[in-house]
UniProtKB/TrEMBL annotation:
The keyword Oxidoreductase does not apply. This is HhH-GPD domain-containing protein. PANTHER family: ADENINE DNA GLYCOSYLASE. It comes from the Bacteria. GO terms for biological process: base-excision repair; mismatch repair. It comes from Candidatus Ryanbacteria bacterium RIFCSPHIGHO2_01_FULL_45_22. The keyword Plastid does not apply. One of its GO terms (molecular function) is iron-sulfur cluster binding. Keywords: DNA damage, DNA repair, Glycosidase, Hydrolase, Iron, Iron-sulfur, Metal-binding. It holds the Pfam family HhH-GPD. InterPro entries: DNA_glycosylase, Endonuclease-III-like_CS2, HhH-GPD_domain, HhH_base_excis_C, MIG/MutY. Its cofactor is [4Fe-4S] cluster. Belongs to the Nth/MutY family.
């Protein structure tokens, strides 16, 4: 890459970041547990919602030990409203595993982090970077948007491998934690009113409609079981069908979704009744 282009890009991102740095509590802590919680919360959830739930979660589960000891029902009750309830389960399972294997210390090794429930390529690298300063190029949706917008303006089907090559080339020698914050913020805010460059990514997938989707039904079932403790499949279906989006929901569809929730260990069945695991 041309050195002048590299420097110009860094200058644009740094200048914007210094003028528009958001006040986000997970960026003002060096506590690896707090950063771990924030990264799981930020998976597919917008920042305003996390800003509300993050302090609430840490108030109730201030340490990884406190989280590891909590029953799933309690964790999901606090998680409620964040969406993707399996992330709450994964967070609990990860806390239990870390207490058992690492005496409560969040690992800094990327491969070790990736082995934890619900922690993938991006989250492992983000946790290692923001908690420990162990930074190597990683991609999330806003970072991808910046790189494609700036370096692949006319290309279609951009592969993440090419995005990573650019990230490696433009990464500064210092302040790498702040650099990745800056890239994410720049992609999310500075490019908000430009065409979404992520649509030119080889990995882009348009999100399906939430209402009436299996994910929507799953969330409704978890909410009902948190409020009512237990229910039969017929009771769950009757409750779900009061929702205008689900008035034609079949009994078999409910059974299929419950089977998935059982397999993921979010719910259990005792005789005729389902409840939170």
């Amino acid at each position: 890459m041309n050195e002048q282009k590299r420097q110009n890009f860094q200058k644009i991102v740094w200048q914007w970041y210094r003028l528009h740095t958001p006040a986000l509590p997970w960026r003002n802590t060096k506590n690896p547990y707090h950063i771990f919680v924030s990264e799981v919360m930020l998976q597919q959830t917008q920042i305003p919602r996390v800003l509300v739930k993050y302090p609430e979660f840490l108030k109730i589960f201030p340490t990884i030990k406190a989280l590891a000891k909590a029953p799933l029902r309690r964790v999901l009750s606090v998680w409620h409203g964040m969406g993707y309830n399996r992330r709450g389960l994964y967070l609990l399972q990860s806390a239990q595993y870390i207490m058992e294997k690492y005496a409560g210390t969040i690992p800094k090794d990327i491969d070790t982090l990736k082995a934890l429930p619900g922690i993938g390529h991006y989250s492992a690298r983000a946790i290692a970077c923001f908690a420990y300063g162990v930074c190597e190029p990683f991609i999330e949706t806003n970072i991808r948007r910046v790189i494609i917008h700036e370096f692949f303006p006319k290309k279609k089907q951009v592969d993440d491998k090419d995005v990573l090559k650019v990230l490696t080339a433009v990464e500064p020698a210092q302040k790498t934690q702040e650099w990745y914050w800056a890239l994410m913020d720049y992609g999310r805010e500075a490019l908000r009113h430009t065409p979404n460059a992520n649509r030119k990514s080889k990995h882009y997938a348009k999100q399906s409609r939430f209402e009436s989707s299996p994910r929507y039904v799953r969330a409704k079932i978890i909410s009902y079981l948190l409020e009512n403790k237990k229910a039969t499949v017929e009771e769950l279906r009757a409750s779900l069908r009061t929702d205008g989006h689900l008035k034609h929901l079949s009994l078999q569809a409910v059974k299929n979704i419950l089977a998935g929730l059982e397999k993921e260990k979010l719910v259990t069945k005792t005789e005729l009744f389902f409840g939170i695991a």
